[in-house]
């Protein structure tokens, strides 16, 4: 049986191919500097090339691996804990200055790879930029290469033309599993932490770490273990909570662990039946028939009718983590940053597959100005990137897109085949309003049997699920103010004082229903 290479070995091979094919300048945009070092150490060791590193504080020096360090994960962990300066190779004389460092590179006769850390900012200097171009022209003939790394790398136009970008994906399961082994070994030796994880528990821990950098993974494992002096399967929950915070702070996605996703979803029987059938697309039996996993669904409807809740319910039913694309953080005022944010969000989702990716109010992200240039064509570019990814994605990522305003959606997004199905959510009917009302009364510790449900269900005709919830909450506040238990009369009084969207936006709802009858499937 043919086994595909691991993401780590594939990254090493790709780097080696770039170097051997006369690419003199490679850019790796990442915060994982240590991981870049490790990849280059393994790549150059296999190619029998030397690796040298430069920083403005240390100057140019041979990499640790070139000085006898094997570059193994165990030694990397030891290096992190060693005193500052321990086993540090001597730097070439007077190379901390960027211009002098480049001149030193030009004079080095042996074939090597040079890792220049945070060097891109120095290329704004005309003399440094000119010297850099001369060095890479020389390296293009010798198979030596410069690797520029940093978080956000912006290059002058005359240099950007001569470089190639290497996409360093988030760590795969093989790298994360190695980190788990490294940390457990170190904790046993140095801190005498009690490791209670069995071999069968490791996959769950590795899955919990997916989507994190290697440094973040090491930190959360060590923290979970050191907090109570032991590492157990129960620590997976703590790691998931920490991961949610890391993802929220670090990008445009919000993470909902499976255990945190609510399950109360009134009605939607048609959608639930479709999802039960679609779920088999993730099974080994479907794979054996060369069937691809389902791509996703688009849910359109009036605000407050449960579209967002449906996304959460899908993740819970399928026992998958839920990622929400935060559109407010996607757009950036700087040219190219919004596209970069989108690519990073997709890369993170892919690293955590299988997962559910929820794009709320997709018309605000990929609609609106897709037909014009009001935003410099940004929405159109993001729209094109999204369609390409939806068409080509191989990972098990189920997209749940929700929309309120069909007029803002590009026609291409509604074409059959983009999504597996298009659903329409109308205002709840009698039975659904009964269920929704019971859910919210029970959630706020009220017994539904103590209310005149028939009268209440009739009174909330035309209310969305969100409006029903708010009516219950407002009535409870009213009851607290009156210092009496909530009853049917207080609820009816609150309901009569509410003007639902079905009244204030009657024309929009009628238009949406007319379109939905022709193109969409009812969630019922």
TrEMBL record:
Keywords from the named record: ATP-binding, Nucleotide-binding
SUPFAM superfamilies in UniProt: P-loop containing nucleoside triphosphate hydrolases
InterPro entries from the UniProt entry: AAA+_ATPase, AAA_domain_protein, ATPase_AAA_core, P-loop_NTPase
GO molecular function: ATP binding; ATP hydrolysis activity
Domain AAA+ ATPase: 293-429
Pfam families for the chain: AAA
Family according to the record: Belongs to the AAA ATPase family. Highly divergent.
PANTHER family, alphabetized: YCF46 PROTEIN
Descriptive protein name: Uncharacterized AAA domain-containing protein ycf46
Lineage: Bacteria, Bacillati, Cyanobacteriota, Cyanophyceae, Leptolyngbyales
